[in-house]
Amino acid sequence: MNIKPLADRVIVAPAAAEEKTKSGIIIPDTAKEKPQRGEIVAVGEGKVSEQGVLVKPQLQVGDQVLYGKYAGTEITVDGQDYLIMRESDIFAVV
Amino acid sequence: MNIKPLADRVIVAPAAAEEKTKSGIIIPDTAKEKPQRGEIVAVGEGKVSEQGVLVKPQLQVGDQVLYGKYAGTEITVDGQDYLIMRESDIFAVV
Amino acid sequence: MNIKPLADRVIVAPAAAEEKTKSGIIIPDTAKEKPQRGEIVAVGEGKVSEQGVLVKPQLQVGDQVLYGKYAGTEITVDGQDYLIMRESDIFAVV
Amino acid sequence: MNIKPLADRVIVAPAAAEEKTKSGIIIPDTAKEKPQRGEIVAVGEGKVSEQGVLVKPQLQVGDQVLYGKYAGTEITVDGQDYLIMRESDIFAVV
Amino acid sequence: MNIKPLADRVIVAPAAAEEKTKSGIIIPDTAKEKPQRGEIVAVGEGKVSEQGVLVKPQLQVGDQVLYGKYAGTEITVDGQDYLIMRESDIFAVV
Amino acid sequence: MNIKPLADRVIVAPAAAEEKTKSGIIIPDTAKEKPQRGEIVAVGEGKVSEQGVLVKPQLQVGDQVLYGKYAGTEITVDGQDYLIMRESDIFAVV
Amino acid sequence: MNIKPLADRVIVAPAAAEEKTKSGIIIPDTAKEKPQRGEIVAVGEGKVSEQGVLVKPQLQVGDQVLYGKYAGTEITVDGQDYLIMRESDIFAVV
């Protein structure tokens, strides 16, 4: 990916929402829960703090992550939807 | 558990709410008070402060903890419900 | 007490509200003013500041303290009610 | 006084509101303006800052001070009413 | 003046509002705009910052200053009205 | 100008709003857009930070600047209207 | 461009919104989505932090950037519309 997030931001490719419920019923698009799981596809260089210290990101490209339901801003690159958010919006690496 | 919380976050397995009152009456599901007690199942590496200092967590996996009623975000891993929250949301180790 | 508060938190055993008014009249339960006085029964190890400095608590177990009417969170241990709050919620040592 | 305020708090004994107007008319209790002047009767040891620096109080017991109308919390000690507030709530020494 | 403001506070004697308009018409009391100009009559010793640094005031007694319409708290000393405010509420020295 | 702004404040002389539209029609006073461009006529000595560091202003008297529509406080000096604002309210030097 | 943004601000020339939909239909002006992509045309010298440290900008003139829909303030220079915003409003370099 040729997009470089600034500072402490990362770009996440959300995992596709499962289109079947456990009982195997196909659910229509509007009923699908927005995914909270995704893959890191780009990482910023880190945030320069008030002290002039560069705080490096802990995440790496390829990490599978969990994030909040309403985290980030949607961007579209080459017809693909991504989320750009701050590293602090990421809860955990799976 | 193969989930690694980021920064100063921890993952808590909430204790099962007791299904009997003291007098031995079984209470229906909706009347059960949401548990505020649980076990730490994963701990982040700590938060890098503005000064570039890594502030290590005080909690360890296995700690029995008390936390606020509305603390954390629910996540589901292998069909099991957990709460992911910041260490500062934990009140005490029991 | 085998509960260890985290960081800059303390556990307070609220003093029993006096059940008699000065003139000796016994007042019913709902009219009793919620106590603002109590005894420290557990103290955390202190808060690690942004600079990585451990700021130790000034309070000790056994201190009789005054605190705000709405301070803290109620917890129940062995059938006994306590309040867990931050040291900064404590006004004074009596 | 055997009460020790914590951190940057002070205890103030409010000055009695004057019960006569300038023209000598005695005013009933509800019309008296709440006093904004008082005497410092106890001073905390100071606040430990984020840097671990103890910032000592500038006020001393016996100082006559001016403070905001709604500053502090009322406490009663031996039947006497006092106000407990942060030093920053004190405007000036008279 | 024998009042000493605390920390970064100053006491201002507001300039008397001009009682005549430019065209020489005397305006009644309620129409007079509250003055935003005054003279510094007392200055605190400065604010001790989180780092334990004493930040000295830039203002001196006698400075003619401009300040915001709603800045400060009114105090009355010997029948005279003053405003007590933080130095940061002062816009400029005239 | 004999007004000295305090700390990180500057005084701006707003540029006169153009009284003609491009097509040459004279517009009445109420329709004129409030100017967002002006000239710096006075600069403070800078702000003393929490660390006791004097952060000097980047602007100089004579700079033509752009600022937000609602920035600053209006002051009148010798019948002339000025705006006094913080340097951080200035967007750019033209 | 002869405009110099102050501190940590940048000036962005928004990319022209595409006037055709994918199917080739020309859409009227009001239906065009406000662009979130643009080119950096001017960069400030950086922000002086509380510690007196100059935090230099990471962006350069010519960078193609993504920014939030409601970021920045519109300014008009020589009949051309630009956005002036803080560097922290920029999400990523494309």
From TrEMBL, chains A, B, C, D, E, F, G:
Gene3D superfamilies: GroES chaperonin
Gene Ontology MF terms: ATP binding; metal ion binding; protein folding chaperone; protein-folding chaperone binding; unfolded protein binding
InterPro entries with a match to the protein in the record: Chaperonin_GroES, Chaperonin_GroES_sf, GroES-like_sf
Predominant location category: cytoplasm
Pfam families reported for this sequence: Cpn10 (PF00166)
Family matches, as SMART domains: Cpn10
Keywords: Chaperone, Cytoplasm
Cell compartments where the protein resides: Cytoplasm
GO CC annotations on file: cytoplasm
Entry function: Together with the chaperonin GroEL, plays an essential role in assisting protein folding. The GroEL-GroES system forms a nano-cage that allows encapsulation of the non-native substrate proteins and provides a physical environment optimized to promote and accelerate protein folding. GroES binds to the apical surface of the GroEL ring, thereby capping the opening of the GroEL channel.
NCBIfam families in UniProt: PRK00364.1-2, PRK00364.2-2, PRK00364.2-4, PRK00364.2-5
Family: Belongs to the GroES chaperonin family.
Subunit (UniProt): Heptamer of 7 subunits arranged in a ring. Interacts with the chaperonin GroEL.
Protein name: Co-chaperonin GroES
UniProt organism field: Adhaeribacter swui
